[in-house]
Amino acid sequence: MTVRISATDWAAGGTTADDSVEIARAFADHGADAIDVSTGQVVPGERPEYGRSYQTPYADRIRNALRVPVIAVGAISSWDDVNSLLLAGRTDLCALARPHLYDPHWTLHAAAEQNYAGAAAPWPAPYRAGSRTPPTGRTDAPKPRLSLTGTPHP
Fold it and tell me: 103-119, pLDDT tens digit by residue?
């Protein structure tokens, strides 16, 4: 089970980074398998310090203070950011909502850009990096629907 916490509410007198470690500790002590570390969204007067991977320092602090797996979020948008955060030991997973809203196949594209060919991502030949063969049409694609006027819709 994972638990999502707001590691700071970006407001004077609110939850601090020290508080977030103790909150995460309580959840971990009671069986949480991982802590999803977000920030803000709890008080109207918050003043976030936005920037690239801006919430990651909170995940990093909890992970390394408690030795509990964490999920980092917040302005992580490239596979290079993901790889850097994982390899540096700052997080165990990255949650990427906005990149996947922009491109639902973000993960597959990131794998292809890195020439990943492991068992989890068997790419058909036309889609492999360096392939010059254009993809062919799907044979199992649904037939176009017809509107009331008889014109096809995609």
Answer: 988 988 898 899 887 77
Q: Is residue 138 predicted with pLDDT exceeding 50?
A: no
The residue type at 95: A
What is the pTM (predicted TM-score) of this model?
Answer: 0.73
Which amino acid would we find at residue 88? A
Tell the residue number behind the tokens 């971990």, with chain if given. 28
Rg of the chain over all Cα atoms, to the nearest angstrom: 21
Q: How far apart are CA 73 and CA 81, in angstroms?
A: 11
pLDDT > 90? residue 39: yes
CA 35 to chain centre: 14
Looking at the chain, list the stretches that DSSP marks H as alpha helix, in order from N- to C-terminal side: 17-29, 56-66, 79-87, 97-102, 106-113
Locate 129 and state its tokens.
């990096």
66 φ, ψ (degrees, to nearest 5): -105, -15
Strand 34-38 and strand 2-6: pairing?
A: parallel
